Structures are given as structure tokens and as C-alpha cells.
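User: Fold this; C-alpha cells only.

Assistant: Input:
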Amino acid sequence: MTDRYERRLTADDVAVGETGPEVVVEELEREDFVRYAGASGDFNPIHYDEPYAQDAGNESVFGQGMLTAGFASHLVSDWFGLDRVERFTIRFQSPVFPGDTITVTGEITDVEDGDAAAVVTTDLEATTDDGTVVLSGETVASLPWA
């Protein structure tokens, strides 16, 4: 049987209150922050140098906010298709630390009928394994009618 997320969604496939696929990133490591620094160019030592991070008043090194945003964008692109996303907004709530497992979820909050497509609004949230919200946001996607 084909999973509904392996094919392109249409407006007829979604409804308010539905949730999409989860993105789970298990046990982040300092190395993940260093790799992201290399990919993004964000080499702030607060993300990989423990003494530097602690001297700056942090409990430990922590991940770049845009790393967490990338996890959320992964959920959105898997669910709706990147070419259908009209808006993607996020708000950073809390840092992510080595050892954290991050789960990103989404729930459809509005579906507006349009002539050629429906405009689908979805709330996003990323949490750690202890329930701390590290990111919240919203995405809007345009899905054609079947």
C-alpha cells in the first residue's frame, strides 16, 4: 500500500485538525552543530567550544537556530512539497543541546477554498524529548484540487 506522503497531496486530501508526518532527530551531538556550521558558515564558537559557551553564560554549547528550522522545513517539504509552500515562518523558543532528541510536528489549522487550489495553513512545533518547545511556527501551502 502506498503511504499518502509518497504521492503529491491535493486539496481533497487534507482537513482542519489533521496532523502530518513527524520528523524525529535522535540525540543531537556536538558534531551535528559543527557539521551545520560547515554547511552554513555559522562558525560562532558558542556552538562547538564548551569553555567559550560556558564563559558566555550558557550551560553548554547549543545548536544553531537555523539547524532546528531545517528540521521543521524538512517536515513541511515532505508533507506538502517544497514547490507548494507559499510561506514558512518560525519563532525560536529555546536552544537545543547535545543529547536532545527533537520531534517536529504539524497540524492543519485552516483550509481556504480557492478557484484552482486550496490555501492550507499549518501550525508547526518542535519539542525536545522532555517536552520543551524549541521552535514554533506556521506554514502556508497551496494545494490544487484533485
